[in-house]
Amino acid sequence: MPSTHAPRPHSSSAPFLLLGSDPTRQPRHVYVSTTDTGIVGVDFMAVERVVNGGLPAPELNEAEQELAARIMTRAGHPARDIAERVGVETRTVTRWRAAWRKEEA
Q1: I want to staple 46 with a disulfide (CB 3.0 to 4.6 A). Which of 12, 32, 58, 81 is the partner?
Q2: Mean pLDDT of the chain
Q3: Contact, 58 vs 50, CB < 8 A?
Q4: DSSP label at residue 34
Q5: Strand partners, 14
Q6: What is the pLDDT of residues 45-96, one digit of tens each?
Q7: What does each C-alpha distance from 9 to 12, 33, 86, 100 come to in angstroms?
């Protein structure tokens, strides 16, 4: 019997990129690698909880905030929602996005 859930793609070369999402679940759940330890000082469990709206939401350090914002951006969340969940101003998310576009160019 085929699974109703999409597989969880994994890429160890990009620890802070969106690793996959399951569009069949409501609300959409974003998978964050909690075993990749490529970024020092980042609690991937806390990031995953914030990205998926888990309560109580943990307080994130700056690296975790940017990681969560990047993951949520790739999942299609608007800047205002990201800012609210991550605990920063909407303008901060907008600046991060501009910087990421420059990195990718």
Answers
A1: 58
A2: 78
A3: yes
A4: S
A5: none
A6: 899 999 999 889 899 999 999 999 999 999 999 999 999 999 999 999 999 9
A7: 10, 10, 24, 22
C-alpha dist (Å) from residue 104 to 4, 14, 99: 34, 13, 9
Q: In DSSP terms, which residues pair with 30 in a beta bridge? A: 21
State residue 12's pLDDT score: 39
Tell me the DSSP string of 41-63.
Answer: T--HHHHHHHHTT-SSPPPP-HH
Predicted confidence band of residue 34 (pLDDT cuts 50, 70, 90): low
- Using alpha carbons, list the distances in angstroms from residue 32 to 51, 64, 90, 95: 9, 12, 23, 23
Angstrom distance (rounded) from CA 12 to CA 68: 17
